[in-house]
Amino acid sequence: MTKQSKTIFNYKNKVIGHIAIVVVCVFVFFTSLGTVGAGQRGVRLRFSAPTGMIVGEGLYFKLPIIEKVVIIDVKTQKEQTEADAASKDLQTVKSEVAVNFHINPEQVVNLYRNVGVQYKTRIIDPALQEAVKATTANFTAEELITKREEVREEISAILQKKLLPFGLNVDAFNIVNFDFSPAFNGAIEAKVTAEQNALAAKNKLEQVRFEAEQRITQAKGEAEAIRIQAQAITQQGGAEYVNLKSVEKWNGTLPQYMMGNSVPFINLK
Questions:
Q1: Is 254 helix (H, G, I), strand (E, B) or coil?
Q2: In 10 A of CB 24, how many CB atoms?
Q3: Which DSSP symbol is given to 256?
Q4: What are phi and psi of 28, to 5 degrees?
Q5: Which of 119, 30, 26 is CA-nearest to residue 72?
Q6: What is the CATH number of domain 77-180?
Q7: Of 184, 86, 81, whose CA–CA distance to 134 is shortest?
Q8: pLDDT tens track, the chain, 269 positions
Q9: Measured between alpha carbons, how far is residue 21 from residues 15, 28, 33 in Å?
Q10: Residue pair 48/71 in contact by the 8 Å Cβ criterion
Q11: Least CB-packed of 71, 75, 156, 268 within 10 Å?
Q12: CB 37 within 8 Å of CB 57
């Protein structure tokens, strides 16, 4: 290899080396930057262990290879699940429930350290199952329907107590549906039908009673009117008063045929 060839070779090696350094620098630069979106927090890890630092929204810098940032959503989220339980009167109850929750931004590190990112399946779903079972055992199947709001509040209180230590806050809890066995559903339907029939019969009886009371009141009124009229007649001359009233209404025409002393209103005694 000539001296000129060696010079060219060394030059090429330097250029390649410089390019490699630039590529590495660019790679390190871009892998050192990241962003945390709105409604999120980042947990900074160093060699896969939480450092205890929380990365806020916006741009952040991390040491390449050594550090990593795990993004956790702290906005309100929804989890819906089904739970099978038994009521106080040992009826099978299938429940569908939903909870709205959010992670306390200040506790994302503890949540990640103690639970990880699978907090829904590891913490929330089991807590929902347990809260539903514990509550439905305190109510009969019928009370689960008639006292639905009370049941909802009790489940929500139990759920909040179980989730709060992990930094999970319950925003709202709802019972989407309660479902029972076909036999119980049939019994409820029959009871409702019987109550409706009884109410209709009661309303009919009240109507008949009201109409009877109206007739009695009307009869009493008519009897009272007759009594008052009779009393007035007696006080004003009895039979003479009746004759007077008849004369007032007489049109002056005599009957064509009369028997005996039958001239109207004339007493020959």
A1: coil
A2: 10
A3: S
A4: -65, -40
A5: 119
A6: 3.30.479.30
A7: 86
A8: 565 565 665 656 666 766 767 666 556 555 678 899 999 999 999 998 999 899 999 998 888 888 899 999 999 999 999 988 888 988 888 999 999 999 999 999 999 999 999 999 999 999 999 999 999 999 998 899 889 999 999 999 999 999 999 999 999 999 998 888 777 766 666 675 666 666 666 777 778 777 778 878 877 777 776 777 667 666 655 555 556 566 565 565 655 555 555 555 555 44
A9: 10, 10, 19
A10: no
A11: 268
A12: yes
Distances (CA, A) of 185 to 58, 133, 180, 188, 194: 55, 20, 6, 5, 14
How far CA 72 is from CA of 49, 102, 160, 249, in Å, comes to: 16, 11, 20, 105
Hey, what amino acid is at 140? T
Q: Are 98 and 132 in contact (CB under 8 A)?
A: no
Neighbouring C-beta atoms of residue 46, cutoff 10 Å: 14
The answer to whether the pTM exceeds 0.85 is no
- Residue 86's φ and ψ, nearest 5 degrees, are -125, 140
Cα-flanking dihedrals φ and ψ of residue 241, to 5°?
A: -65, -40
Helices (H), the chain: 3-31, 108-114, 119, 125-136, 141-146, 148-163, 182-235, 239-249
Give me the residue spans of the domains in the chain.
Answer: 8-73, 77-180
- Which tokens belong to 107? 């506790």
